[in-house]
């Protein structure tokens, strides 16, 4: 009787080979999305650039990039939105078919100034594919709550106007509307494209 309980070298090599094969190839399980199961996103009723009512369900079947900001933002919002648009453009150059499954959505947190026309022009200035949405204060507040976004009117600025403090998050949602991940717009367009390549199939 062999009382040596240590596995043989051949056995270890076979196990290692099996694990290596299991970790690659078409049948390999994909990493679970960072936001899987998170209570983020859901139905809303907002208004597009044409004054038409838009709901979350209208984008069913599409991957959705969602960013909350405002058009009068002097720096962060235009920078983030530009990187989102550029990242999507880079990804389109890599895989046009997959990029066609994505719709970028900009939602205003400043309904007082961001009319449908204004928000539509802002979105279109960055990408013809970007959807700009706004709404009444109550509609915007409800949407922001659903997407776990905080915002609030800041102090009046010299010369008139005001700033709006808000969360700086770029969400990626799947075709079923479930949250997948956040996109690193702060790291540039290439980082956004790389993250899209990781999750969009």
Total count of helical runs of at least 4 residues = 6
Please estimate the helix content.
25-40%
Q: What is the string of SSEs from the N terminus onward?
A: HEEEHHEHEHEEEEH
> What's the total count of β strands?
9
Specify the biggest β-sheet: 5 strands, mixed
Task: Explain the overall architecture.
This protein has a single domain, classed as Glutaredoxin, CATH 3.40.30.10. Helix content is 34%, strand content 21%. The chain has helices at 9-22, 76-94, 96-99, 116-126, 137-146, 189-199; strands spanning 45-47, 53-55, 63-69, 102-108, 131-133, 151-156, 162-166, 170-173, 179-182. A hairpin with a 5-residue loop joins strand 1 (45-47) and strand 2. Helix 2 packs across helix 6 (189-199).
Attribute tags:
5-stranded mixed β-sheet, 201 residues, Glutaredoxin, alpha/beta, two-stranded antiparallel ribbon, single chain
Give a concise summary.
With 201 residues, this protein is an alpha/beta fold.
């Amino acid at each position: 009787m062999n009382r040596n309980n240590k596995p043989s070298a051949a056995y270890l090599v076979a196990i290692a080979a099996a694990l290596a094969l299991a970790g690659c190839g078409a049948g390999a399980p994909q990493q679970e999305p960072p936001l899987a199961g998170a209570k983020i996103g859901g139905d809303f009723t907002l208004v597009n650039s044409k004054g038409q009512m838009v709901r979350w369900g209208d984008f069913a079947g599409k991957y959705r990039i969602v960013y909350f900001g405002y058009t009068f933002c002097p720096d962060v919002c235009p920078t983030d939105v530009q990187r989102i648009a550029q990242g999507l453009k880079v990804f389109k150059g890599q895989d046009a078919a997959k990029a066609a499954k994505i719709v970028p959505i900009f939602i205003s947190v400043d309904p007082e100034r961001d009319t449908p026309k204004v928000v539509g022009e802002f979105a279109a200035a960055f990408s013809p594919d970007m959807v700009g949405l706004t709404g009444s204060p109550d509609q915007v507040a409800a949407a922001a709550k659903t997407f776990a976004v905080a915002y609030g009117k800041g102090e009046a600025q010299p010369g008139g106007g005001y700033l709006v403090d808000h969360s700086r998050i770029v969400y990626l949602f799947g075709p079923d509307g479930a949250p997948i991940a956040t996109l690193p717009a702060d790291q540039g367009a290439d980082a956004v494209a790389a993250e899209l390549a990781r999750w969009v199939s």
